[in-house]
Amino acid sequence: MKIQAFMLFLLGLLTVTVSSALAENGTVQIISPADAKILHVDGQQGSFVYSGDKIVTLKKEDGTIIVLKAGAAGKITSMKVAAYQQVHENDLLGSITTSAIITDIPTTETSKKLPTLSELARDLYKTTGIYGVIDGQLSKDWTVGIGRVLMILVGLTLIFLGIFKKFEPLLLIPIGYGAILANVPMAGIAEPGGILYYIYEVGIMTGVFPLIIFMGVGALTDFGPMIANPKTILLGGAAQFGIFTTLLGALFLTDMIPGINFSLRDAASIGIIGGADGPTAIFLSSQLSPRLLGSIAIAAYSYMALVPLIQPPIMKWLTTEEERQIKMVQLRHVSKLEKILLPLLVLGLCTMLLPSAAPLIGMFMLGNLAKECGVVDRLSDTIKNSLMYTVTIFLGLGVGSKLSADKFLNLETLGILALGMVAFCIGTAAGILIAKLMNKLSKTPVNPLIGAAGVSAVPMAARVVNKVGLEANPQNHLIMHAMGANVSGVIGSAVAAGVLLALL
Q1: N or C, which end of the chain is more exposed by having fewer CB within 10 Å?
Q2: How far apart are the first and last CA of the chain?
Q3: 311 close to 461: Cβ distance less than 8 angstroms
Q4: Which one, of 268, 457, 426, lies nearest residue 356 by Cα?
Q5: Distance from C-alpha of 457 to C-alpha of 300, rounded to nearest angstrom
Q6: How far apart (Å, rounded) are the C-alpha atoms in residues 39 and 65?
Q7: pLDDT (tens digit, 9 = 90+) per residue, 56-98?
């Protein structure tokens, strides 16, 4: 035993000696792991880094972000690349001389000669946004040059639609304003250290904001129309058809178009846009495809806000004037007990059959139970007012931060926007077609327009259905019937997300 202990002691000494030698004299080369573009160089030549510090951030053609971090403390002895430079796999980016101890001594700047007025004017000009755009266009990349100007115009357009066209101002105004902030040249508001960066990382990447929003939507939702007319559940399910159709479409684009590379998990995240449910789209994407989360969130919330523009042409194209004039029978009264039992029943079914959807369904039903039970009015008011609207502000700003030109202006993002539009249109059409079939088979009349409310855009889709119905017949009030399909769509999109999470 003494011999074994002595040998272990010697081995320990040898290990310490070798490690120290490596720490003092070792040089680590920084190698590019793939063909990519340099987004940001965090470590400068001559600076010291500690284990875990970021050195270089790269972006592949398919949008994948790669962050190279120091594995040991040391001094960066060379850095051969700059921001927006294209590098190839196995290219040498720089080197680090490792060190067991780093001495960090504050430096004191010596006084220097007062610059001339022309030099001061030149230095001041280099701090302006005009210089940032021109310099970005000429020496970096067009996405940080004219691309910033284009995305600021996009942000202004969203604000215009929210203020003057009244297209969901609660969503479009903070998203548009966030887009403007994210594209301010040289401000770095959406970069590490900026407020929008932390809003996005803390609230959206973690999935916290979408779940709180879902709780608030639950507190605003009345399940009475769905309980009174259970057939509308089918419409909520039918409208999710666009999700799975678009999943296949994303895989098809990957095979057909160079520069687009969606995996099955990416395709599932893109498909959920078809449910027109922003919180669900963000939650699913944060779990399955975080790299596409920003683009998917933008697409989902944009189409939610543009429901009044997108849905009416589809509704009129798929229905006749006679069908749009169909009056539906008045709904029966739903008791308070039924409304209290429903959220508990839905949560119970979710627990037994689809636990992966429990975060979404659970928070949604908690908000609804607080509303319907009638004994926690102050909690219900907080959930559906101050809490939800506070989170809505930050959610909109966080989503808008992903409209920065360097992140948004690429082929994959445009593909996601196109697929999201297809998903939303297919979901709307599927709901209308199923409603037309129900009208043929049902003894009581069913206006096919209510099928368009099967998407999860609550209550925008129901309002649009009611508006189109009134245009065909001023006495045809469909709002309550459409709300039955609408709230069914919320549950349907959450279930679809749970299925995708469980399978992938």
Answers
A1: N
A2: 53
A3: yes
A4: 268
A5: 10
A6: 9
A7: 888 887 667 788 888 888 888 888 888 878 888 888 888 888 8
